[in-house]
C-alpha cells in the first residue's frame, strides 16, 4: 500500500486525464477524484494497528481470552460511473490489506481508471490473483451476487441497483454495504454569511455537473429567499460549461445522452407542476462540442416536496424551497434519502439543533460537502445506505474482517470429574 500510494501520486495526471476523457468531469475535479481515493490508500497503510484485537488475561481462574480479526476470503466491489478512481480506492485497498482477495467491477461507462489502478497495484507488488477486474453489466452483477465463494460485496450507485444487489446477495448470506442515491439539503438561515454561503452553494450544487452523491441539490432559505436567489443565479450564470479537458471549464458534460434526456425531462416536470424556472441550462451549446451531453446550471424555485423533480436524485439542478417563518424548517425530514445535509448560520444554537435533529449520515455546519476523511467512515443513512457497516474507517475494516474469540487455559487443574453444568467465571 505504501508503494501503491507512491505510484498513484506519480501517475496522478494520467489517471485524471483518463477520467476526464471517459467520464467528462473537468481535469481539476478529476484530480480531486483521484486524491480522495488516495487518502483511503494511505489510511489502509495503517491496517496493522486498525485490526488489532483485544486481550484480557486471567478473565477467570487461570483463563485468558482474546479476540483476533481474520479475512473473509473473496470480496467484491461494484462501482458507479461518477468517481472512476475514488470509489475503487474506497474498496480494494481496505479489502486486500485485511487479507482478502478482491473482484472489482468498474462501471461499463468508464472502466479505464480501474484498469490503470490495477496495473499500478501489480507494479506495487500486489500478488497475482489478489486483485481481479471483471467487466459487464447486469449479468456480471448477478453472478457476483450469486457466487458461493464471494463473502462480501461493496456497492456504490443508484437505489434501484443497490437494493437489488442488497436483497439478492443478502439472501445468499453475503455481507453487503450499499451506498445509494441522495437528495442532499442545505438550510440557509437569515444570519448566514452571504458571500461565503452563496459560493459554497454554487460549488456544491454544480460541481462535477452535479454527478456526485454528496451534491447539494436542494436549498431551503429560512426567511426571504429573493436576495439569496438573485446572488445564486448571478454566480451560477458565471460558470463556464465546456469539455472537461478545456482549462476554463467549470462544468463538463453529464455521462450520457440518456442522463441528459432524463435531467431535461425532470426539469420540465417541475415546470409543469408549478415550479418557477429561474435559470434554464437545457439548451446550452458548447462551440466545437455541439453534440456533447451538456446541461448548464439550472435553478427551479417555488418547489414543493411532492414534485418529481424534488423526490428523485437529479444532477445539475437546484430546487429552491423557502419558508418565511423565523424558525428552523427541516424539509429534509420529508425526503427518503439521508446521505448528507448542511446548515449555513452564525448561530450555534441553530447549528446544534440542526445537528441533533437532522436525519442524515453526514452533517455540515457551514460546510457544503461534509465527506469525512478516511479515518472516519462514510455514514449514509435512510434510503441512501443499506447494510450495517459503512465504507472505510474502522467500520470498513470491520466489514472486510470477521472476529474470532479465543479462550485458552494453560493451567494444570486437579481432576474434578465430568461436569455437565454451564461453565462460568464463578469459583465452585
Please characterize this protein's 3D structure:
By secondary structure, the chain is α/β, with parallel strands linked by helices. It folds into 2 domains: 1-181 and 380-406, 3-Layer(aba) Sandwich (Aldehyde Dehydrogenase, Chain A, domain 1); 184-334 and 340-365, Aldehyde Dehydrogenase, Chain A, domain 2, CATH 3.40.309. It is 36% helix and 21% strand. The chain contains 14 helices and 18 strands. The chain has a 7-stranded mixed beta sheet with strand order 10-11-12-9-8-14-15, sandwiched between helices. Strands 5-4-3-6-7-17 form a 6-stranded mixed beta sheet, sandwiched between helices. Helix 9 links the parallel strand 8 (184-188) and strand 9. The chain starts with a helix and ends in a 19-residue tail after the last strand.
The CATH superfamily of the largest domain bears the name Aldehyde Dehydrogenase, Chain A, domain 1
- The appropriate CATH architecture of the largest domain is 3-Layer(aba) Sandwich
**Helix residue percentage:** 25-40%
What form results from the Cα inertia axes? globular
Domains, number:
2
> For the largest beta sheet, what order do the strands appear in spatially?
10-11-12-9-8-14-15
Number of strands: 18
CATH fold description of the largest domain: Aldehyde Dehydrogenase, Chain A, domain 1
How can the largest sheet be summarized? 7 strands, mixed
Per DSSP, the total helix count is 14
Radius of gyration: 25 Å
Strand % is 15-25%
- Mean pLDDT over the residues: 92
* Distance N to C terminus: 52 Å
CATH class of the largest domain: Alpha Beta
Give the structural class: alpha/beta
Poorly predicted parts: none
Amino acid at each position: 500500500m505504501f508503494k501503491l500510494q507512491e505510484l498513484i501520486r506519480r501517475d496522478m495526471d494520467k489517471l485524471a486525464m483518463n477520467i476526464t476523457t471517459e467520464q467528462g468531469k473537468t481535469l481539476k475535479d478529476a484530480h480531486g477524484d483521484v486524491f480522495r481515493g488516495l487518502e483511503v490508500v494511505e489510511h489502509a497503510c495503517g491496517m496493522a494497528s486498525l485490526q488489532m484485537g483485544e486481550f484480557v488475561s486471567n478473565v477467570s481462574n487461570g483463563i485468558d481470552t482474546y479476540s483476533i480479526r481474520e479475512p473473509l476470503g473473496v470480496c467484491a466491489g461494484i462501482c458507479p460511473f461518477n468517481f472512476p478512481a475514488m470509489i475503487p480506492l474506497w474498496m480494494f485497498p481496505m479489502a486486500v490489506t485485511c487479507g482478502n482477495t478482491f473482484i472489482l467491477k468498474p462501471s461499463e461507462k468508464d472502466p479505464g481508471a480501474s484498469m490503470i489502478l490495477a496495473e499500478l497495484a501489480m507494479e506495487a507488488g500486489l500478488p497475482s490473483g489478489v486483485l481481479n477486474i471483471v467487466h459487464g453489466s447486469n449479468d456480471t452483477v448477478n453472478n457476483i451476487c450469486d457466487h458461493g465463494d464471494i463473502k462480501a460485496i461493496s456497492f456504490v450507485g443508484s437505489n434501484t441497483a443497490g437494493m437489488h444487489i442488497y436483497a439478492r446477495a443478502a439472501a445468499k448470506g453475503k455481507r453487503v454495504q450499499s451506498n445509494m442515491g441522495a437528495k442532499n439539503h442545505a438550510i440557509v438561515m437569515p444570519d448566514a454569511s452571504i458571500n461565503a454561503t452563496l459560493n459554497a452553494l454554487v460549488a456544491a450544487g454544480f460541481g462535477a455537473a452535479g454527478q456526485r452523491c454528496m451534491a447539494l441539490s436542494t436549498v431551503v432559505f429560512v426567511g426571504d429567499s429573493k436576495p439569496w436567489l438573485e446572488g445564486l443565479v448571478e454566480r451560477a450564470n458565471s460558470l463556464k460549461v465546456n469539455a472537461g479537458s478545456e482549462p476554463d471549464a467549470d462544468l463538463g458534460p453529464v455521462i450520457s445522452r440518456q442522463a441528459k434526456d432524463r435531467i431535461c425531462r425532470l426539469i420540465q416536470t417541475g415546470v409543469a407542476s408549478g415550479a418557477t424556472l429561474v435559470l434554464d441550462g437545457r439548451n446550452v451549446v458548447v462551440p466545437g462540442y455541439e453534440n456533447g451531453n451538456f446541461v448548464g446550471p439550472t435553478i427551479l424555485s417555488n418547489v414543493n416536496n411532492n414534485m418529481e423533480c424534488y423526490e428523485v436524485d437529479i444532477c445539475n439542478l437546484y430546487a429552491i424551497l423557502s419558508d418565511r417563518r423565523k424558525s428552523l424548517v427541516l424539509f429534509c425530514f420529508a425526503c427518503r434519502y439521508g446521505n448528507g445535509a448542511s446548515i449555513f448560520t452564525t448561530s450555534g444554537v441553530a447549528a446544534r439543533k440542526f445537528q441533533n435533529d437532522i436525519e442524515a449520515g453526514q452533517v455540515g455546519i457551514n460546510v457544503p460537502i461534509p465527506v469525512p476523511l478516511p479515518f472516519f467512515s462514510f455514514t449514509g443513512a435512510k434510503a441512501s445506505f443499506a447494510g450495517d457497516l459503512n465504507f472505510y474507517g474502522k467500520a470498513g475494516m470491520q466489514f472486510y474482517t470477521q472476529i474470532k474469540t479465543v479462550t485458552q487455559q494453560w493451567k494444570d487443574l486437579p481432576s474434578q470429574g465430568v461436569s455437565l453444568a454451564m461453565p462460568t467465571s464463578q469459583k465452585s
